[in-house]
Amino acid sequence: MVQWPAVIAGAITAAGVSFTLHAFAAGIGLAVLSTAPTWRDSSGGLWLLSGIYLLFTALAAFAVGGYVAGRMRAALRLDTTETEFRDGVHGLVTWALAVVLTAVMALGVAATAMPAAVGGGAGSTQSVAGENIIASELDALFRTDRNVPDMTYRRAEAARILLKASGRDGVTDADRDYLATIVAAVADIPPDMAAERANRQIAAAREEIHRARVAGVLQAFFIAAALFVGAAVSWFAACEGGRDRELGLFPAWGRRRAR
Asked: Is the full-model pTM beyond 0.85?
């Protein structure tokens, strides 16, 4: 039978360690993806370092959480093999619960950090899916010293066109002409200059969307690797905590001492 108090204690501990380390990583810029429009300028080395830090976070968080779950579990009068197996299962359940808790916390942070998206109807649109990916391109597209009252809908409309740049067919000629037309109207520049600006930003958007996809694949790989490593670490850490519980030992600064 699963002893839920020990599992919950370990999961909360793991989630707390993980959230703290992720907050630290976000603060110093160790993130594969970011809401800032300049995250794409990061080098491949920084992306790799971010993935390694993600693995380190999984090792640290689930090792602590698994150990707590195994150590806090009540002792059972069973043979050594069965006891170790049950400790490992408790570590695995702790890992699963900690993943859920961390995901809930991450969703809560994302919900407060990102603006709400409104459907693309006739009214104004606060944000679109591509705003954070091609925000700089949208700025360059409509750059002007004129006083434009409200650019919200125009930016959203242009973003939807620029996002087609990474598709199989790309941006159609009709969309290019329309994009150049609205750029000329907003920025008050000649049509040929507006067309040149639109073509330049379409090419830039295609490159940035490609980089975003590469970063997304890297992030997915590192997350999956970290979760698999975390599951194994949590299992073995719980077994270690169970052995220390049975022997009456505790870790202290890298060495074991009897009570």
From this structure: no
Taking each helix axis from N to C terminus, what angle separates 4-28 and 80-113, rounded to the nearest 10 degrees? 40
Same domain, 223 and 197: no
In a domain, residue 213? The reply is no
| Domain with 237 in it | 4-117+219-258
The pLDDT of residue 40: 52
What is the DSSP track for 109-134?
Answer: HHHHHSPPP---SSS--S--TTTTTS
List the chain residues with pLDDT less than 70: 31-44, 109-132, 251-259
Q: What is the sign, positive or negative, of the torsion defined by CA atoms of 83, 89, 93, 98? A: positive
CA proximity to 6, closest of 91, 107, 63: 91
Other residues' Cβ atoms within 10 Å of the Cβ of residue 166? 18
Total domains present in the chain: 2
Residue 223 and residue 113 in one domain = yes
60 occurs within a structural domain: yes
pLDDT in tens, 11-32: 999 988 988 888 888 777 776 5
Q: What is the pLDDT of residue 252?
A: 60
